[in-house]
UniProtKB/TrEMBL annotation, chain A:
Coiled coil: none annotated. Keywords: Metal-binding, Zinc. One of its GO terms (molecular function) is metal ion binding. The keyword Glycoprotein does not apply. It comes from Chaetomium thermophilum (strain DSM 1495 / CBS 144.50 / IMI 039719). This is Protein yippee-like. It holds the Pfam family Yippee-Mis18. The keyword Aminoacyl-tRNA synthetase does not apply.
UniProtKB/TrEMBL annotation, chain B:
Involved in the proteasome-dependent degradation of fructose-1,6-bisphosphatase. Residues 140-150, 230-245 have a biased composition (Polar residues). Residues 290-354 form the CTLH domain. CDD domains: WD40. Pfam families: LisH_WDR26 (PF23627), TPR1-like_2nd (PF21889), WD40 (PF00400). This is CTLH domain-containing protein. Residues 41-63, 92-245 are annotated as: Disordered. The keyword Endoplasmic reticulum does not apply. GO terms for cellular component: GID complex. One of its GO terms (biological process) is proteasome-mediated ubiquitin-dependent protein catabolic process. WD repeats lie at residues 478-519, 528-562, 733-775.
Length: 110, 797
């Protein structure tokens, strides 16, 4: 990959990578706070930036079977959450294409 | 019988040509003797005949005489001669067959083929005291049978000159030989004084063009018009000073106004130092470079006669018409300039009372809305002497250049048709040269084109091949693959190339031997986005993703200064032309643009908060353009550090550079196009498409001789070269895989550029034959002749 700078966000509360403070998502972009990840609380976001997605894997979660990819920070390559590729249950379809960031792995950047 | 005689006379004429004017006249004498005709005048001086046109009667024998004399030099064809003579005997006015000079049609049914070139070539120069309009007027009385006679007389004169000019090379050389001493002396002395556009190529012109005009036989091209005119003038004026062959003149010069062309030429002759020739041309053609009033005005300004100058300015010249001003010119402003000069000169001479009077009575009334000017001028009254005055007012003194500078300033307000702009011919020639260079599609030559041929560069010298690939010693080849090169920059003298990227070290290469010279180590492993050479090549600033910039000494390789107080990566850097300060751009919102000096002190933090991805400084140090990651360009006035404007683009820009003339900026965008924008007007002047843009930074730049090209990398690995002005794609080649990140054209060598890419390679491109000129036999750099290092170890695993 070539030379690329981070994308920077513009809002009052920005979540960034705990390790390198890279901007990841806006607080206003949260769709739901009702999620739990391996490390505790997690939020569902519409868009996140500066992340790279890994290989798709099928996982069974409390809500059913999904195909997800782990996402990691672009700069420090630490995993920060995952992304939903496909949901097998029709009620869970709304998650497809959206991102989960674990609160434990984030910090607030202003 | 006459035909035979004429034919023999013709032959004699040609055979006698080398004898020069004497020979020509002699054969004419012979002819007239043979034909038993008494010549009109005792000597063959044509002036006399011309001076008394009324005496030329329309008697047939005289007609015949003149006619025959006319036919001798001109016709080379006995049959044509016979035709003409038979016409005369058929007692018709010979006009219908003869080209009628006063008529302004340029297509003439010329009985003799050699006549027309004579007239068109020699016409304007071989003229009489009378002005052209008068001549034409007189000639245009076709019913008057004098006119053919006069016509004949004149034409004869012009043709009389022809064998001397066209047929006799010896004549030209004689004329030249008789005058080279004076001509050359004057030329040499004048040229040492004149530091104008009369370059050394001009110096050789007069001598060569004497023969040129002669050799071309007056079928002039636009190029040699002036010169053949000059040469012919010089020849003709010695031969027959007041010949009046205005009859033969075209009303315009190949579509250009005769008046304009002649006046420009007279000015050019004057500029070149040929004042005598200029006067003669002015005399002959009846045009003058400037009207009497304008000349008087110029004289008045240069000699300090301010009253007269103002009189002329306000329109009370000798004709009552004064000087015609250019549209939009302000008489009051011009008056102010004159009076200011008067004021300063009085002060310089110490005449404080007079100066004060000027200030009160003349300057104040016209400056009533700008009191600060009056204040500034009154401060000069306090100066202690002429030296002090000159320093304070930044003024050269009455005996210096100040009057000329004043004249130049005023000249801008005077209508260009009454007072020609300075060096007009040189300006026009510059335009022609520049437009030829600008349109040259493969322009790869730094030399000034000659005026003799249209400029054209051929493709063989255009860089299309990879000359060499810069690589390091084999021991490091194994770790190559994972690294990428993100930016390359030539040093300002073109001798070294710096490359940076994901590697921790910055590599400096020698461009002549293509070897690695130094490695600058010190940055953390995060990537280096940009490097910038100082104008003298001694220092290098590197901008890193580790949120710091470092200042290096390029010769020793040591890091001199570091600044790591940034919260975000430093993205780019530019130096000012004094080599003492540089500006860095950073993605840190608090410090988007900072000016530093080479001691590492932060001189200024620019306050507009945006995140800078790339910056560019114009060579005239006027504009600083910063590119943000939000599709915007911020343009600052670098001197005052004020924000001038903000330009929003349609897509994310990835690189920015400014042209050498400081007028245009090149923005490379991710939507597969690069645009050239005029900095002042913000218009998009040209677009360059073909390359691919993606989410990564691809860089583009200007390059080539005369900066004729725009070169750019691409997300698909190709390198693109376009012609800057027309936008046509000149060259495309595969450069790197998967993408070509940055490109750089050699600053002094127009036939070389370099590219770098994600395959950790830097390639140098030039034209095919260059490879043979490389020092040493091996084409690989650093003496590594093993082809494995070029292909990469993975190919040989």
């Amino acid at each position: 990959m070539g030379l690329a700078y981070n994308t920077y966000l513009n809002s009052s509360r920005i979540y960034g990578c705990k390790g390198c403070k890279t901007h990841l998502a806006n607080h206003d972009d949260i769709i739901s706070r009702n999620f739990r990840g391996q490390h505790g609380k997690a939020y569902l976001f519409n868009t996140v930036v500066n992340v790279e997605a890994g290989e798709p894997a099928e996982r069974t979660m409390t809500t059913g079977r999904h195909v997800v990819r782990d996402i990691s920070c672009r700069i420090c390559s630490e995993i920060v959450g995952w992304k939903y590729d496909k949901a097998y249950e029709s009620t869970e379809r709304y998650k497809e294409g959206k991102f989960i960031l674990e609160a434990e792995l984030l910090c607030t950047v202003n | 019988m006459l035909a035979v005689v004429a034919a023999t006379a013709c032959q004699q004429m040609h055979s006698n040509a080398p004898q020069g004017p004497a020979g020509a006249r002699l054969s004419l004498q012979q002819f007239t003797d043979q034909a038993n005709i008494r010549p009109l005048t005792s000597n063959s001086s044509i002036e006399q005949r011309e001076a008394a046109p009324g005496m030329v009667d329309s008697e047939a024998p005289q007609d015949l005489r003149l006619r025959e004399r006319q036919t001798i030099p001109r016709t080379k064809n006995a049959l044509a001669v016979a035709d003409q003579i038979s016409q005369i005997f058929s007692d018709q006015p010979a006009i219908p067959q003869l080209p009628d000079p006063p008529s302004s049609d340029t297509s003439r049914p010329v009985p003799s083929s050699s006549q027309q070139p004579v007239i068109s070539g020699v016409g304007p120069s071989s003229s009489n005291v009378r002005t052209a309009p008068q001549d034409i007027e007189r000639l245009s009385s076709p019913s008057h049978r004098l006119s053919p006679a006069q016509t004949l007389g004149r034409r004869q004169r012009s043709t009389f000159e022809e064998p001397e000019d066209g047929g006799g090379n010896a004549l030209a050389s004689e004329a030249d030989a008789s005058r080279p001493a004076t001509k050359r002396q004057r030329r040499d002395s004048m040229l040492t004084d004149h530091n104008n556009h009369a370059s050394s190529s001009h110096a050789s012109r007069p001598v060569t063009n004497g023969t040129h005009a002669v050799g071309n036989g007056f079928r002039d091209t636009a190029d040699s018009f002036g010169h053949s005119g000059t040469a012919a003038t010089m020849q003709n004026t010695t031969l027959n000073g007041s010949s009046n062959s205005a009859a033969g003149r075209l009303p315009d010069y190949f579509g250009h106004s005769r008046e304009e062309v002649t006046r420009i030429l007279i000015q050019a002759l004057d500029d070149l130092g040929y004042t005598e020739a200029a006067e003669k041309v002015a005399h002959e053609s009846g045009f003058s470079v400037e009207s009497g009033d304008v000349a008087a005005f110029r004289h008045a300004v240069l000699s300090g006669d301010w009253q007269r100058a103002e009189q002329l300015l306000c329109g009370s010249g000798s004709n009552g018409s004064g000087i015609v001003l250019a549209p939009g010119a302000d008489r009051t402003a011009m008056k102010f300039e004159l009076r200011q000069q008067k004021f300063l000169e009085h002060l310089e001479r110490g005449e404080k009372q007079k100066a004060l009077a000027v200030l009160r009575l003349e300057l104040t009334p016209i400056c009533h809305n700008r009191p600060q000017i009056i204040q500034a001028l009154s401060r000069y009254l306090m100066t202690s002497g002429p030296e002090d005055l000159r320093n304070k007012a930044n003024w050269d003194g009455a005996n210096g250049r100040s009057r000329h500078i004043l004249l130049s300033k005023l000249r801008e307000s005077i209508s260009p048709s009454s007072m020609l702009p300075e060096h007009r011919l040189a300006v026009l020639l510059d335009c022609v040269k520049q437009s030829q260079i600008d349109n040259c599609l493969y322009h790869t030559s730094n030399e000034q084109p000659s005026l003799y041929v249209d400029h054209f560069c051929d493709r063989s010298r255009f860089p299309t091949e990879v000359l060499v690939e810069l690589s390091k010693p084999a021991s490091e080849a194994t770790s190559r693959q994972a690294e990428e090169v993100w930016q390359i920059r030539f040093s300002p003298d073109g001798k070294r190339l710096a490359s940076c990227g994901t590697e921790k070290a910055i590599n400096i290469w020698d461009v002549e031997r293509f070897t690695l010279v130094t490695q600058l180590e010190g940055h953390a492993k995060a990537g280096i986005g940009d490097v910038a050479w100082s104008p003298d090549g001694k220092y290098l600033v590197s901008c890193g993703f580790d949120r710091s910039w470092k200042l290096w000494d390029t010769n020793t390789g040591e890091c001199l200064k570091v600044a790591d107080t940034f919260e975000e990566p430093v993205s780019s850097c530019v130096w000012t032309d004094d080599g003492q300060t540089f500006v860095t751009g950073s993605l840190d919102k608090a410090k988007p643009l900072c000016t530093w000096d080479i001691q590492g002190n932060c001189l200024h933090t620019w306050t507009k908060s945006h995140r800078t991805c790339d910056i560019a400084l114009s060579p005239d140090q006027h504009w600083l353009v910063a590119m943000t990651e939000q599709k915007q360009l911020h343009v600052y006035n670098f001197a005052t550090r004020s924000h001038v404007y903000e330009l929003s683009l349609t897509n994310r820009p990835t690189s920015i550079s400014i042209s050498a003339d400081s007028r245009h900026m090149l923005v490379n965008k991710t939507d597969h196009e690069a645009v050239l924008i005029d900095i002042e007007t913000r218009e998009t002047v040209q677009k360059y498409t073909g390359q691919k843009g993606g989410q990564y930074t691809i860089r583009s730049d200007f390059g080539g001789a005369n900066e004729n090209f725009v070169i750019c990398g691409s997300d698909d690995g190709h390198v693109f070269v376009w012609h800057k002005i027309t936008g046509t794609l000149v060259h495309e080649a595969e450069a790197h895989q998967p993408r070509c990140n940055a490109v750089a054209w050699h600053p002094t060598d127009p036939c070389m550029f370099a590219t770098c890419g994600d395959d950790n390679r830097v390639k140098i491109w030039s034209y095919k034959d260059r490879a043979k000129m490389l020092p040493g036999t091996s084409r690989q750099s650093n003496g590594v002749s093993d082809i494995r290092s070029l292909l990469g170890p993975e190919m040989w695993a």
